[in-house]
């Protein structure tokens, strides 16, 4: 029999509705798990224990009165440390924001609270979401739940570990180039990056505004769907949100559906043997369920990584210019005024953040902007067109989520290029703005492997429907 903190959201929802458990007991079970494991794993930066128990009690009162707010009422969830929660610290994993307290709620978090969810705390992350291992955090690295000598992936590693280690029933992360899907793959949970514009970014600390998207971590595709249903929607505070039809789960069959296998991904070098083996087993299950597997050509897939690592640093250099030691966060006073800026940023930012700021500033500088940024934007259009053409032939596209399983702590920390290559299968999805989900492949006790399913713009229903069939 499962412990309460091991339940899926769907299972917990059913037991709550029957009155067999309470939100308080469910929340206490998660808090006990955090106390037991987080000293070793470091998934959380801060736990809101008193607030969480109070929210759970309020949920139980609502349920007793017949006023339950929705599917997530009373469900313990965690949020990444770059999403604002009014009255709570939010640091984006950086020293430069130590002591900053949020003045308002991010839209996604507010929607969770309005739905009655219990927010357990804020999870660890790579500083300003820049990294693929959660080693670039000012608070220290998060450890893999199966092997504390390995990384959990990043940048949303804390959220992935919190779900994988049953410290919560679900969590929010942000995905700019794979920061939900990559740690989901490495930790063996479901991670969904919605279509760009499906979920509001208001109150999310921006890394690269045209690429960032908030999405869920969960133990099942149905749980991910419940979270997405809650946080989706157009937001007047974020003009990039879409008025597309609201997401609702669909698809009860894969029969006759075509799943494209890009030859640029499946024939690429550098894929670990275990990753190939497990993802091919998952593909065989999709085929057995009635799907037709079709090899497709997805041009510019090889260029997507280069495009991403030009566009993203350019936006980083602009977005992080606001952290100057003057308005909020760390301030190191110096004379003349420029020294205050320079000293505050030099002490407040980590090496990876400074590296990306410098790359972006260089690419945007006079004499180089046309050669780098403008050219990358043109190739971005070609990448989007390649996906448009592919989706005229197939319903979904499948690739490995990552080329490797979880690697050792420190193994790639001093090799930025090797670390960036961890995103080789994920970045094109953000560049094109399409939705994608990482699904755990069958688990035999080894290090987890994820299969990435990619859907058409705003077709998360088909995407998660296929994911559910793969689970079953």
| Overall form | globular
* H-E string: HHEHEHEHEHEEHEHHEHHHHEHHEEH
The end-to-end span amounts to 20 Å
Number of helices: 16
State the CATH superfamily name.
Answer: Amidase signature (AS) domain
Taking the sheet with the most strands, its summary is:
11 strands, mixed
Q: Quickly name the level 1 CATH class.
A: Alpha Beta
Determine Rg (CA atoms, Å). Answer: 21 Å
What is the subunit arrangement here?
Answer: single chain
Give the second-level CATH assignment, the architecture. Alpha-Beta Complex
How many domains comprise the coordinates? 1
Return the CATH topology. Answer: Amidase signature (AS) enzymes
Overall helicity: 25-40%
Mean pLDDT: 95
Total strand segments? 11
Secondary structural class: alpha/beta
Percentage of residues in strands: 5-15%
Instruction: Please list the strands of the largest sheet in the order they lie side by side.
Output: 1-3-2-4-6-5-10-11-9-7-8
Taking pLDDT < 50 over at least 5 consecutive residues as the criterion, the unreliable ranges are none
Question: What would you note in describing this structure?
Answer:
The protein has 472 residues and is an alpha/beta fold. The protein has one domain (1-294, 399-472): Amidase signature (AS) enzymes. It is built from 16 helices and 11 strands. The chain has an 11-stranded mixed beta sheet with strand order 1-3-2-4-6-5-10-11-9-7-8, with helices on both faces. α4 links the parallel β2 and β3 (118-123). The longest helix has 21 residues, at 370-390. It starts with 8 loop residues before the first helix and ends with a helix.
